[in-house]
Every structure is written in structure tokens, then in C-alpha cells.
Amino acid sequence: MATQSTTDVAIEARGIAKRYDDELALDHLDLRVDAGTCFALLGPNGAGKTTTVNVLATLTPPSAGDARVAGYDVGREGAAVRARLGMVFQESCLDAKLSAREHLVLSARIYRVPERRARVSQILDEFGLGEVADRPTRTLSGGQQRRLEIARAVLHGPGLLFLDEPTVGLDVAARAAVWDRLRAMRDAGSATLFLTTHSMEEAEALADRVGILDRGRLVACGTPATLKAELGGDRVWIRVEREAGAREALAGVVGVASVEAGARGLCVRVDAAPRRLAELVRRAEPYGIAEVEFARPTLEDVYLHHTGHEYAVDGGETTS
Ligand SMILES: Nc1ncnc2c1ncn2[C@@H]1O[C@H](COP(=O)(O)OP(=O)(O)OP(=O)(O)O)[C@@H](O)[C@H]1O
Ligand SMILES: [Mg+2]
Predict the structure, then answer these.
(1) Please, are residues 272 and 234 in contact by the beta-carbon 8 Å criterion?
(2) The dihedral sign for the CA sequence 75, 78, 80, 85
(3) Is residue 50 in contact with ligand 1, taking CB distance under 6 Å?
(4) pLDDT digits (tens, 9 = 90+) for 77-131
(5) pTM of the predicted model, to two decimals?
(6) Which domains, and CATH codes, for the chain?
(7) For ligand 1, what atom is nearest to the CA of residue 48?
(8) How far does residue 167's CA lie from ligand 2's centre (Å)?
(9) How far apart are CA 263 and CA 22, in angstroms?
């Protein structure tokens, strides 16, 4: 019999794999998401993000491994898992003939939402759909349809939300409003969020922890701050007119780990760059400074580093 777990872990997957014919779409993934947090899964097209969501949401069985989601086993207690989820699919799955309001009323009925009509009207307004609420969905714009799908997923106040590339196609204001809404759910401790995205901005805006998936494997996982710190220090790019000798001069500055030549000039890897900047500039001056640029690693750098592009000099070279 299904028993509600008392643990604070919302998702725990051990060695989940998914094989399609001769392709291993998920290669024995271990994953843990604490309750009340937001986890973002990043990765190139075909990395296995949607497959991961589908396995965790019990829409497809894993070929190996097991997972507990919202306290229940995805293999043996699928119905209990599904009852606790909200889901935004990557592919739209609305009925073209139904209106936005009809979609939401139907969902409210299925999940036995109290004060159905009032709740539906409220959420239509919250998602900026009040004015188009009674038109057939096929007459809504792409972004309006996407908003409707997110509204439908959160309507019944699920404890766990899976969002597969939720904000693709939304305008800037709508996207910010959706982020605010999702953040509020997480901050209230009322929901765990598991999202996939290609937007580093979205991951930065929402995620407590980020996982990077590449060819079915989790190649990095941690808080954005930790992942950035693991890349190893800041970068200062100094373009000088005469490179001969400049490299050696810069390498002698305290805190410098390496100096490499590249498309944007000399790339100096250095700890605590703001404190070293004056000395770096002083040493570079005799070689004719054309440009100085300073950057901390971003999540995009982390992503490129782990998915086959090195974060080094021009960020564009494939290392594999
Ligand atoms: N039903 C299926 N049958 C066969 N192969 C599949 C099926 N679904 C997914 N795959 C394969 O599994 C791999 C992972 O696909 P998945 O949809 O999980 O990737 P994704 O990371 O979500 O990519 P995207 O960013 O493009 O949405 C891909 O190589 C894909 O071709
Ligand atoms: Mg996908």
C-alpha cells in the first residue's frame, strides 16, 4: 500500500536509464531534488531532458533504475505520483475547440478544486487571459496558449510541478510574470519545481540547483554559484599591440593561474580579478593596451564547458 513519505526529498532517482531501440537516451541517472526548491535541467537538443521528465512523471517507464517522486515509487505507485503533479509538456496539448475557461474548468473538476468558477476566473486574470477566456483555443496566439498551459498546470496547487521548456514563445513581460508566479510558489514552500530550459537566464532566475545533461548523462550538478566557482576563477582579457613578452609579464602577477593567447587577446585566469586588475594593467602597459575586459564565469560558460565547448579564450571552440 502507498504510504506518504515524511522525507523532505521531492525527487530521488537512482540509476534511471531509458533505452529506445539501440539508443541509450538516459544513461543511469542519479538525481535528488529537495522539497520546496527549484531544479533546472539544461542540456543540448536530444540530451534526454524530456525523457527524464517523462520517466519522473510516470509517463514512460525507465528501462532500469528506480525513482521516488513526491514520496511514491514511480513504478509501483504511478497513480499516487500523478495525483500530486502539475505538468507543462514541451509540446502543446490543448484542445483547439475548447476555450481557455473550459480547459481550466475541466481540469478543476478532475482535481476537485473547490469554488471552481471563482478560482478559474482568478487564474485567467493572473495569467492575462481574462479577455480571451471564452474564445476557442485555436484563435489564441502561441504565447497565450502557452500561458494557458502553465495556468492549467498550477490551477490545482500541485506540490510538484514539471515544466518542460515552459516559457518558449512568451513575450518578455509574460515570461517575467510566469517567473514571478513560479518563484512565489517555491518561496511559499508550497511547491517543488522541476523545469527544463535552454535559457540560462531562466535557470538563473529560478533555479536553486542546476543539472547539465549531455547525451543522457548528468555531467554537472549544483547551485549556479558552485558550478561557476568550479570553473576556476575570473577571466581578464587584455588585448595588447605587442604580445611578445606580455604573456610572461602578466603571468608574474599574484593570483594569476594561467595566461593564454586567443581571439580576444591574452586571456588571464586569475583569482579575485578586481583586486589584481590595476597590477595587470600596469604590467601590460608597456606592450600597448588596446582593450581590457573582465568577466566572471556565467552559467552559459558553465554550460558550454560541460557540453563540449571550452570556457577559455573565445568560448566558441569545440574541445571534443
Ligand atoms: N519515443 C521515442 N522513440 C525513440 N527515440 C526517442 C523517443 N523519445 C526520445 N527519443 C530519443 O531520445 C533522445 C533524448 O530525447 P529527449 O526528447 O529526451 O531530448 P531533450 O533533451 O528533451 O531534447 P530537446 O532539447 O530537443 O527537447 C533523443 O536522441 C531522441 O531522439
Ligand atoms: Mg525536450
Answers:
(1) yes
(2) positive
(3) yes
(4) 999 999 999 999 999 999 999 999 999 999 999 999 999 999 999 999 999 999 9
(5) 0.85
(6) 9-223 (3.40.50.300), 233-296 (3.30.70.920)
(7) 18
(8) 13
(9) 41
